[in-house]
Amino acid sequence: MTKPDVKEQIIDFMANQGMRITVQRQAIVEAAFNTEEHYTAENLLERARKIDQSVSRATVYRTLPVLVKTGLLRELDLGKNEMYYDPNYASHPNHNHIICTDCDKIVEFDDYCLDVRESFIANNLGFRPVTVKLRIEATCTQFAKTGACSRKNS
Ligand SMILES: [Zn+2]
Ligand SMILES: [Zn+2]
């Protein structure tokens, strides 16, 4: 699924930063937002190259922080060796993650009660929450029962 409005905002942002909107950068922006999966810089490079073969690793690594600066892409520390990038905050600004320790699948969830609790806790302590990152690392019950995880390849 593509989100043209997000891509347009990013391209505008880059132009305002004085960056040249090359076909390579356009391919990176396209690849960054044509998925709802969470990805690493290397994943992004691979997918951007499917759009434009001339995309270089250096350009991906230089462009990623710019995308993060727009606030439309978030850098995620999932407790793995590499940083992950999440294109879904533009559509789901308050979502959280469960990471399956059996199959590495990342599952997103939104929970209104959790949002209310977070605000309540912060307010009680004299704060207003700005960002909340909840990361639940979990084993999957299906894997424990059957030895296989149906989420693995989805
Ligand atoms: Zn996410
Ligand atoms: Zn699993």
Structure characterization notes:
The chain is of the alpha+beta class. The protein has helices at 4-16, 23-33, 41-51, 57-69, 112-124, 141-146, and strands at residues 74-76, 84-86, 96-100, 106-109, 135-138. The chain has 2 domains: 4-86, Winged helix-like DNA-binding domain superfamily/Winged helix DNA-binding domain (Arc Repressor Mutant, subunit A), CATH 1.10.10.10; 96-146, 2-Layer Sandwich (Dna Ligase, domain 1). The strands form 2 sheets. A 3-stranded mixed sheet has the order 4-3-5, with no helix packed on it. The chain has a two-stranded antiparallel ribbon with strand order 1-2. The radius of gyration is 18 Å and the shape is flat. The mean pLDDT is 91. The protein binds zinc ion (2 copies). One zinc ion binds at residues 100, 102-103, 105, 140, 143, 149, 151.
Fold blueprint:
Elements: H1 4-16, H2 23-33, H3 41-51, H4 57-69, E1 74-76, E2 84-86, E3 96-100, E4 106-109, H5 112-124, E5 135-138, H6 141-146
Parallel strand pairs: 3-5
Antiparallel strand pairs: 1-2, 3-4
Helix pairs in contact: 1-2, 2-3, 2-4, 3-4
The protein binds zinc ion (2 copies).
Give the count of helical stretches: 6
Bound ligand species: zinc ion
Fraction of helical residues: 40-55%
SSE order, one letter for each helix or strand: HHHHEEEEHEH
Give the termini separation: 16 Å
Mean pLDDT: 91
Radius of gyration: 18 Å
Total beta strands? 5
Question: Can you identify the CATH superfamily of the largest domain?
Answer: Winged helix-like DNA-binding domain superfamily/Winged helix DNA-binding domain
The largest sheet is: 3 strands, mixed
